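Lecture notes, continued. The same structure-token format from the folding unit now serves as the input rather than the output. Read the line below as a description of shape only.
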């Protein structure tokens, strides 16, 4: 899966070109919206006899290679899941910063629709 920071126009162009070459050469149809589309294309390109497909596949693999492992990326689940994931990460970071600063939350803490409510 592709992290948000790694998904840009160049990545999309490479994915589209590789998808077309795989369909033309191997006859395999891959939908870009599938959760495992990137992994499928990279796997097919490694096994291909075409140098152009192998080159596109290695370029795509370099583009989507994670810099660090934060766990599963919600990008394949859609934009809403991606925003919820980012919001959760921000809340976790904020709560950790508050606990390190010695600020104990006063009263109760609830989470309502992804938002921390202190009362």
């Amino acid at each position: 899966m592709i992290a948000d920071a790694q998904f840009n126009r160049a990545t999309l162009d490479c994915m589209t070109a590789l998808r077309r070459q795989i369909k033309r050469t191997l006859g395999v149809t891959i939908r870009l919206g599938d959760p495992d589309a990137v992994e499928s294309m990279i796997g097919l390109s490694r096994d291909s006899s075409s140098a152009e497909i192998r080159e596109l596949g290695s370029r795509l693999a370099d583009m989507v290679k994670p810099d660090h492992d934060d766990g599963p990326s919600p990008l394949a689940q859609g934009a809403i899941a991606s925003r919820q994931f980012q919001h959760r990460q921000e809340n976790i970071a904020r709560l950790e910063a508050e606990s390190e600063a010695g600020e104990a939350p006063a009263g109760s803490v609830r989470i309502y629709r992804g938002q921390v409510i202190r009362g």
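Point for the exam: Strands lie at 109-112, 115-118.
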